[in-house]
Model the fold of this input.
Amino acid sequence: MSWRSWFARPEPAAAPTPAAPRTAFLGAYGYGNLGDELCLIEAMQAFPGEDAHALSVDADWTRRCVPALTGCFATGEALLALNPSRIVFGGGMVGVTSALRTWLPWMARAERQGAEVHFHNLGVGRLKEVEAWLDEAARGVIERLGTFTVRDHLAVEYFAEAGIARLPAITHFPECNIAPDPALADRLLPQGMPLLGLSIIPTPMMKACLELEAPRIRALLAEFAGHAVVPIVSTVHRYSSEEDDLAGVTQFLHDFLPEGRIAAPQLLDRSFWHQELTPRRLKGIIGRLDTLITQRKHNAVHAIGSGVRVIGLHPLEDNSLRRTFIALQHRLRPGSRCIGLLPTSWRAA
Done:
């Protein structure tokens, strides 16, 4: 072969580029809880790809919070129509009987279409009525999971109690490490004064606890007499008034800090909150605080990840926040602690 014919040869055909994995993320997205969309951001980092779709009851909300998404879907039929190569089930308290009963059959069908299923960073409640969801098909999906992880030690116990032979690994809230967006904090927060963040969920049980434990709450707040208060609102739930943190922090301020100076009062404006808050922007605000008092676990997660002192305030009967503090105890800032409150139903005791 002459040198001329050598250089005249056509280039070999390039190998076909493998298709990017299409990933479907199943979680409690679109309900107005920034903590859930925070978990979605983390899950997308753990399972990267340019073709990412999320289950959501409000696609516009979820895509504003998580702009890297390709799209959203709302039903099991739509999940199968996407024909994903991966399904990631996790984030938020979706490891509960109702969600497993609803979605494991769809995951089994998607698996038969070729999808690999992952349980990722699950928040898990005690799994009651196991017979309602743990059939042979569900056991098969769990046995074949590509990865199987939960947030904390109790979640491992709950799966073991349910009779799952395969036990998950523990992630310890990896969303703790999501980078903040400081833009909104730069716009809203004053300089040169100590800032106290407040986050309260207005459930009937929490209201009862605050009524009974009012002297204890006032004693706690005495330490922060010179602080300006930053309302920390991470949830304005689409359907539940008991999950409206705007109402919760407003009532708490009325009852316990009626003369308190409010930094960034825009954070108590419902329209402003819906238009401006995202998981990363909320973390940017929490990262500027001197101390956060919170009932919301993902606000505690933001504070711990930002090196901010955090005081958990929660009904003693609810272990959700306490579990978070235990899982992240190795990262708590000195002076952080979790305070359990007694409800009025315990008054006689």
In short: The chain has 15 helices and twelve strands. Residues 97-112 form the longest helix (16 residues). The CA atoms of residues 6 and 194 lie 75 Å apart.
